[in-house]
Amino acid sequence: MLDNLSGRLTRVMRYLKGEAKVTDENMKQALREIRLSLLEADVNYLVVKEFIANVRERAMGQEVRESLTPYQQVVKIVQAELTRLLGETRKELARPQRKPGVIMLVGLQGTGKTTTAGKLARFIKHRGDSVLLSSLDPKRLAAADQLETVAREVGAPCHRAAVDLSLERQVPGLLREARETGYDYLIADTAGRLHVDATLMQELAALKQGLNPVEVLFVGDALTGQDAVESARRFNEAVGITGIILTKMDADARGGAALSMVSATGKPIMFLGTGEKADDLQPFHPDRLAAQILGMGDVLSLIERAEEELDQREAERVAQRMLRNEFTLEDFAAQLEQMTRLGSMKDILGMLPQMGGKTVALQGAELDDKSIAHMIAIIRSMTPEERSRPKLINGRRRMRIARGAGRSVQEVNRLLKGYLEMRKTMGKPLFRRMMKRFDISQKMR
Ligand SMILES: Nc1nc2c(ncn2[C@@H]2O[C@H](COP(=O)(O)OP(=O)(O)O)[C@@H](O)[C@H]2O)c(=O)[nH]1
Ligand SMILES: [Mg+2]
Asked: By mean pLDDT, which of 37-46, 224-233, 243-252, 351-360 is the weakest?
């Protein structure tokens, strides 16, 4: 996700890190690079201009000049500005005053509305609310079929509009039925078109009146960059939206849509679609994405995601141990095991803090489930004492462990190196602050 932009910005930051002081000269150089990174990411040029002006003003001001760690100050400023650009704070899905709370999905054809309807249903169910999916696209039979398939996958009920009756006439009955059954939410999947057109907008506006939704979410394809931004603006003008879901972020290396959306529409990004499967939906947190773009990883999202699948107590225990710097190889093995249960490995590892551009724990290792199984086998082949005191593991022990696990000594070495680097990261102030913000200690009380 946003790999190109992230790579470039991380390099700029590393360049500044090599400089003892922030001067007019090196700051000018850095700002030029940041500007190019953003333009290359397809961020709107006016947005870039303002961004650079803000960073320049703050970076050349007193706060940096007088600071002992100018590099950190600049990173902080860039991170804050990125966060602002992405919308500052997370906006949660609105709670309905009256059931069902209707969430209407709008957008062009092929952007991912139907897929996202399923993902959202799953998200809402996970929160413990009930949800009904509804296909309000009677002109295309295939549309309702697709939504039914999606609904079955996530275990949510699905309603389809009758083809022989106008939508306006059907909506009151649909709402009444949903209310009487007691659904908390109703997700309305609507028709799309290839281009923004007036008829579609009128239909959607009329439908919105009938549905009286708590959210009208524009679903945009991140890969289409500024086109997605432009169509969000048009939908907002014609229909009025309350938020944005950007799909196909898994394939978007640039990031122009994500970084321009909020300032172009004034509406928050609420979720990111990160794949074709039903659980490939991430609640959007501006601060976390900003940290991730700057190569600082997204530890909070990682923990949140892991937590969903894990025993809560186990997650807290591991987090506590990380904070106390007691994260042993035993914990590492347990984490790896949990990871294999958590969907795509690449996603998870992408969220770990990056150091020097490489994922900390597993440098050079293939990031698939098989190699994770090998790593677990290696740890399992150690004695309990070795697991708690890895310093003991000398050359002879390494050979024994490798033989026991049926792996090579190089793999054992790589695993130990990865583990030690991970521990080092856990000792770093940034990581510890993020863990503290997650506020484990409070939860334990
Ligand atoms: N890679 C990726 N593909 C997605 C994502 N969301 C949707 N898609 C794919 O985009 C295509 C169009 O999705 P669909 O839900 O039918 O779009 P709709 O026409 O707006 O309802 C399908 O092939 C989906 O699998 C996403 O977040 N990542
Ligand atoms: Mg569809």
From this structure: 351-360
Q: Is 273 in the pocket of ligand 1 (CB under 6 A)?
A: yes
pLDDT tens for 288-304 read: 899 888 877 655 565 56
Would you say how long the chain is, in residues? 445
Q: Which residue ranges does the chain devote to CATH 1.10.260.30?
A: 299-444
Classify domain 101-293 at the CATH class level.
alpha beta
Strand order in the sheet with 269-273: 158-160, 131-136, 185-190, 101-106, 215-221, 243-247, 269-273, 281-283
Q: Is 220 in the pocket of ligand 1 (CB under 6 A)?
A: no
Q: Whose CA is nearest to atom 14 of ligand 1?
A: 112
Give the whole-angstrom CA distance, residue 93 versus residue 214. 9
Distance, in Å, from the CA atom of 217 to the CA atom of 123, rounded to the nearest integer, reads: 15
User: What is the residue whose two structure tokens read 């039925």?
Assistant: 177
pLDDT of amino acid 444: 35
Ligand 2 centroid–CA 145 distance in Å is: 10
Site to substitute for ligand 1 among 115, 140, 248, most atoms within 8 A of C-beta? 115
Question: From ligand 2's centre to the CA of 136, what distance in Å?
Answer: 10
Q: Kindly indicate the confidence band of residue 308, based on its pLDDT and cuts at 50, 70 and 90.
A: low
Which ligand is closest in space to the CA of residue 246?
1
Which ligand 1 atom is at minimum distance from the Cα of 105? Answer: 20
- Is there an atom of ligand 1 within 6 Å of 280 CB? yes
Backbone angles phi, psi at 389, to 5 degrees: -130, 75
Q: Which atom of ligand 1 is nearest to the CA of 110?
A: 19
Superfamily of domain 299-444: Signal recognition particle, SRP54 subunit, M-domain (1.10.260.30)
Domain 3-85: assigned CATH number: 1.20.120.140
- Residue 381: band (very low, low, confident or very high) from pLDDT cuts 50, 70, 90: very high
Would you say the pTM of this structure is higher than 0.85?
no
